[in-house]
Specification:
six-stranded antiparallel sheet, mainly beta, 75 residues, globular, single chain, 48% strand
């Protein structure tokens, strides 16, 4: 099952800006794309929250909900 949602992302130091579309690629793994390029991912390891990681491999944190993890990309 594929689910997408858009989220506005601020500029990063390398000028990556735009809405992020999220796709559930398998159980517990979501991949985000903006401008057709990889923007980051969210993993849900063994029910221990949602780990958000940017396209530059920076961990944004562990969040209680998928919505909070997605929102972390706009902070």
């Amino acid at each position: 099952m594929t689910m997408t949602s858009s989220r506005t992302s601020p500029s990063d130091p390398q000028g990556f800006t735009n809405a992020i579309s999220w796709t559930a690629v398998q159980s517990g793994l979501w991949v985000g794309k903006a401008n057709g390029e990889f923007a980051g991912m969210i993993e849900a390891p063994s029910g221990n929250g949602f780990v958000a990681t940017t396209r530059l491999a920076k961990t944004l944190g562990v969040f209680a909900t998928i919505e909070q993890a997605k929102a972390s990309f706009s902070d």
